[in-house]
Amino acid sequence: MKIAILSRNPKLYSTRRLIEAANERGHEVRVLDALRCYMNITSMRPSIHYKGENLTGFNAVIPRIGASVTFYGTAVLRQFEMMGVYPLNESVAITRSRDKLRSLQLLARKGIGLPVTGFAHSPDDVQDMLKMVGGAPAVIKLLEGTQGIGVVLAETQKAAESVIEAFMGLKANILIQEFIKEAGGADIRCLVVGGKVVAAMKRQGKEGEFRSNLHRGGSASLVKLTPEERSTAVRAASIMGLNVCGVDILRSNHGPVVMEVNSSPGLEGIEAATQKDVAGLIIQFIEKNHQPNKTRTRGKG
């Protein structure tokens, strides 16, 4: 098989591991920087060019598109789909999962456990919205933030009002969520491949930090999932339409609640914590499922 990996940096751990796993199984791999790809959007003959070369002959494409380049990256991925190349995750599903508000609305509609979440446009409604999510302490998130950036824990009503007004003054879109105190600064990252949780780790925030992201100094350890947590992760991935994703779950008093579904989960932390060859499982999934012109969500926006 000839596989394209859309990644801006071939030296990143996740990209390197996917290259190794594909090479070990006898596949040809090419890493392409999505921002250097340019497209010819011709009727019936779509093509992608890269540094002067017309890209052809690929069987599958693995998108590792960073949040900051979602718009252009998914446009390139969509062009691959139009050319009949099998995408590991489809462009529609990635766009859906990157929109925090839309993804929460889709999960809520299907009955997935979520923290109580508020979203508003006008600062006049701040007090009522805080009351709606259970008051302070509350978590305030920028819609466009990633890796824990743009996430604030407001411990008092006054602090929450100040932070919300400051964000809104900058014309930023924000979510306000209930603070799940019983999670104790820890969450569970479930890695789903092809409708199964293949690896799971507990991420614990460092002392005094409520965010558990490994990029923020959190630590990872092996965790045993309950059947409810496993089923929640699999259902969340399916609702988003993602074949491969990281589902972040908090353990609350009212069962597992989903914080986020990540369409480009990092492999370093989870492979180290679980000692599992996740990259190999991803390549095996592509081997079993790749077919030309196989996209499920065409036309569904």
Report the oligomer: single chain
Helix/strand-derived category reads: alpha+beta
Across the major sheet, the strand order is 14-13-12-15-16
**Would you tell me the overall average pLDDT?**
88
Instruction: Give the C-alpha Rg.
Output: 20 Å
Order of helices and strands, N to C?
EHEEEEEHEHHEHEEHEEEEHEEHH
The low-confidence runs, each spanning 5 or more residues with pLDDT under 50, are none
Beta-strand content: 25-35%
The CATH topology of the largest domain comes to: D-amino Acid Aminotransferase, Chain A, domain 1
Helicity range:
25-40%
CATH homologous superfamily title of the largest domain: ATP-grasp fold, B domain
Say how many strands there are. Answer: 16
Commentary on this structure:
This protein is of the alpha+beta class. The chain folds into three domains: 2-89, Rossmann fold, CATH 3.40.50.20; 97-112 and 182-286, D-amino Acid Aminotransferase, Chain A, domain 1 (2-Layer Sandwich); 117-179, 2-Layer Sandwich (Dna Ligase, domain 1). The protein has helices at residues 13-24, 70-82, 91-98, 100-109, 126-132, 157-169, 227-240, 268-274, 278-289; strands at residues 2-6, 28-32, 37-40, 47-50, 53-55, 60-63, 86-87, 117-119, 138-142, 151-154, 174-178, 186-193, 196-204, 219-222, 244-252, 255-262.
